[in-house]
Amino acid sequence: MLRDERVLVRPGVRCGCDYAGVAEEVGGKMTKPFRKGYRIAGFIHDAISLEPKSGSFADYPIAKGHLQIKVPDNLSDEEAATPGISITTVSPKMPLPMEPAAERYPILIHSGSTAMGIFGTRSVKLSGSRVITTCSPRNSDYLRSLGAVIRALTGNAFTVVWDCTGTGAELCARAQRQPAKGAQTRHHRTPSATSSRGASPRLSDEFELTKVFWETSYGLVAGGLIRTVAPVVNKARAGLKDVLVDFEELRNGRVSAGMLVYAL
């Protein structure tokens, strides 16, 4: 539910998707070779009314093992805390490094200086596709004309656009091939084997694909082929109590080309 541009959840439901830290306990059904004391990072589905303790904004968050990795030795905990939601969002929607594009077609990533846009650009480039991105333009006239500029640049060939802000629908529509024969909008739901409405074959397929991409991402990050987004650590002060302070910084456009990270 939205009100005054804020996402509202029920009291007591935990938020937060990204994290990194030391494993304190490993469940008996874990299939990955995690052990107590390992440095782990990943993604946690948050704000679930049926699972109110699912979320990373906690001293001891609970993470489902499939969407987690052992932190590569070349990453600090702060760096490892940045790519979780980006990996999870990129994987079901875009050409992937382990599935190179058969044709090198152009892809528009709107707002490429966001954490999502930065990771998506790096990942899609490894798939062999051509990336064109926008970032932080302040001029509204330029924004309105950008669609025509992009169509000229790509020979009116754009068929794939990805909006990383949720507010760029008009720009993305202007940038697409004209006249369009039709369009398909894909709304991303976080991959999970089930949802609050029960089992979903489509969600199960995305969940399996995301699990594979998490394993691939470990190798890409460990090998230096994909770098994490720059962490902006403790922008206000350390601790979860200042998350809301920095949310206002995000809303006012004062954080870009990085991701807010808090040390506990």
Please provide a written account of the structure.
The structure is a single chain. The chain is of the alpha/beta class. It folds into 2 domains: 2-87 and 189-229, no CATH class; 97-175, NAD(P)-binding Rossmann-like Domain (Rossmann fold), CATH 3.40.50.720. 29% of the residues lie in helices and 15% in strands. It contains 7 helices and 12 strands. It has helices at residues 77-80, 84-90, 115-126, 140-154, 169-175, 201-222, 243-251, and strands at 2-3, 6-7, 18-22, 39-43, 68-70, 106-110, 130-133, 160-163, 194-195, 198-199, 231-233, 259-261. It has a 3-stranded antiparallel sheet with strand order 3-4-5. The chain has a 3-stranded parallel sheet with strand order 7-6-8, sandwiched between helices. A two-stranded antiparallel sheet has the order 1-2. Helix 4 runs parallel beside helix 5 (169-175). The chain is globular, with a radius of gyration of 19 Å. The model is unreliable at 193-201 (pLDDT under 50).
**Radius of gyration computed on alpha carbons:** 19 Å
Strand content: 15-25%
Molecular shape:
globular
How many strand elements? Answer: 12
Question: Helix tally?
Answer: 7
Largest sheet: 3 strands, antiparallel
SSE-based structural type = alpha/beta
Tally of structural domains: 2
Biggest β-sheet: strands ordered side by side in the sheet: 3-4-5
What are its keywords?
single chain; 264 residues; alpha/beta; Rossmann fold; 2 domains; three-stranded antiparallel sheet; 7 helices
Task: Describe the structure concisely for a colleague.
This protein has helices at residues 77-80, 84-90, 115-126, 140-154, 169-175, 201-222, 243-251; strands spanning 2-3, 6-7, 18-22, 39-43, 68-70, 106-110, 130-133, 160-163, 194-195, 198-199, 231-233, 259-261.
